[in-house]
Predict the structure.
Amino acid sequence: MTDLASRQVEVPEGVIDLGVGQPDASVLPIGLIEEAAIRALSTPDPEALLQYGADQGDGRHRLVLSRYLASAYGVDVHPAHLVTTNGTSQALDMICTRLTRPGDVVVVEEPTYFFALGIFADHGLEVVGVPMDDEGIDLVALETVLVESARRQTPARFVYTIPASQNPTGLTSSWDRRQELAEMADRHATLVVADEVYQLLHYVEGPPPPMSALVPSGSVISLGTFSKILAPGLRLGWAHTTPDLALHLAGSGLIASGGGLNPLVSGLVTEVIDRGDLAIHVDRLREEYQHRVEVMDQALRTEMPEHVTWSTPTGGYFFWLRLPEGTDGAEVRRRARHHDVDVREGNLFTTGGTLREYIRLSFAYYRGDDLVEGVSRLARALHSAL
Ligand SMILES: Cc1ncc(COP(=O)(O)O)c(C=O)c1O
């Protein structure tokens, strides 16, 4: 990265970085945002967009968003339950600021989204990993951790889960597991923080209802973002929880001083939702990503050496590959770079380095031929590592 970089990731010329979990330029809705900006600034009260905003987020934005979520998720959503955020990353930071103190315990799935680990570290939290099985987080192991942390007088403040099309595994937790998780959190007087960034990006059939459906139980904060369904640069998302907790989250010193988060952008996005353009755009994204899943799946079937296994993702951005026994994902990544392709090694997503034999590939940043070429380069690197 140079000092004057504009993007988070700059992939060197000639390299195919299958590690990048971001949308490529072809799916960024530049026209929609441009039209929405013009409409938003022609509304009866355009000055509100340029003023300090309401603490919990602009009222009309939360109303329009609540209607969209109710229809997309099939659950009841009320604006009083929503807080505007700068996206899921900032929402996690806000939750840590408002609900934890340094030294507190938080529980994560193993593997988990590695940037969340950085946010928890910023707040001096002790992170405890709990394994997953093919239905979601292992509840027996979780209960042991919750009991043990309470016994040590450091009760877990929350359990962080990514229930739909998980990053990195692509796994969607079963509905039973989600319900039991919320019940267990309730019994142990802790919260579930459900990072639902991929909830709307499902390609095969609808995923189980979002954790938001369990918000009335009082033990769930469900996080959504426009990063995956419109554009990451908007830095806009929402937290969905009980009205009391929503007010508490929005009661930070930061918001008291700066007003609600991102009034201008939330005004633009309100226009995109209100005209029905978001729903149409999300349908297009699903179609495009489903196509990429098929392309990458076929390329993997053709190219991967024996004993490399994966489940075809039904949503989200990622393939999670299990390498032949004894193969080190970090070493495969090193070799892959010599072949001008990059991936992310499994251990990046762990707290304890327990997933050495895995790598994560993303299909979000490249289309057709590049995906096929990337997989072919990776296959060459893997053959040289086995
Ligand atoms: C699981 C997960 N959570 C959060 C984020 C970041 O979301 P946002 O852009 O809303 O901060 C990502 C982005 O890749 C993600 O995969």
Remarks:
- The CA atoms of residues 234 and 265 lie 7 Å apart.
